[in-house]
Amino acid sequence: MQTRILFFVIFLCAFMACDRKVEPFDATERPRQPDLAKLFPPEPREESEHAHEQETPSDTRPLRGEIQISEDLKMRVPPHAVLFLIARVDEASPPLAVKRVQDPKFPLAFELGPEDRMIASMPFAGPLKLSVRVDSDGNVSTRDAGDLFGEAAGTYQPGDVGIVLRIDRAL
Question: Which domain holds residue 133?
Fold first, then answer.
């Protein structure tokens, strides 16, 4: 009996201490979309405009070329594969720019420019090393056996055209 009284007193105190306005349940009420601006504030517009002003003319020109695949690997391109075209400052650096192409058909003309940068504040400037990978699972961070790979010879500056990347290896 004392346990029931104690439970009732605790429940009553908790109920009385609640200062929120609790409305009755309405099954027809539609939930409101949360205001995510408080969690993810929009980037200040002025900063992005200044970023373009700071770029040099060479920063705004894309790299252009063609991706080819060797005949013996052409039949190994899996259905629904994803091609990743990657530009790096050097082999040890993280990608500067990446382009993702779903279901690539070869030869594939490409354009890789400042809009493909991984970090918008990084300048799109060379010299750049280019590589390409045909990925079977579509996840850029995995490298599975059988994924196809290739690189362009040399390094390139923004605005270079006629670049040829040849997919000639399987991982």
Answer: 45-170
Residue 17 contacts by C-beta under 8 Å, 6 or more apart in sequence?
none
The answer to whether position 162 is within a domain reads yes
Spatial distance between the Cα atoms of 168 and 76, rounded to a whole number of angstroms: 11
The single-letter DSSP state of residue 43 is: P
**Is residue 39 a part of any domain in this protein?**
no
Terminal CA-CA length for the chain: 74
Mean pLDDT by 10 residues, the chain (171 residues): 79 65 76 70 56 49 94 88 92 89 93 92 89 84 83 91 92 83
Task: Specify the CATH number for the domain of residue 86.
Answer: 2.60.40
**Is 8 inside a domain boundary?**
no
Number of domains, the chain: 1
Query: Concatenated DSSP letters for 102-167?
Result: ES--SSEEEEE-GGGBSSTTS---S-BEEEEEEESSS-TT---TT-EEEE-SS-B-TT---EEEEE
Q: What pairing do the DSSP bridges indicate for beta strands 97-102 and 148-151?
A: unpaired
The answer to whether residue 28 sits within a structural domain is no
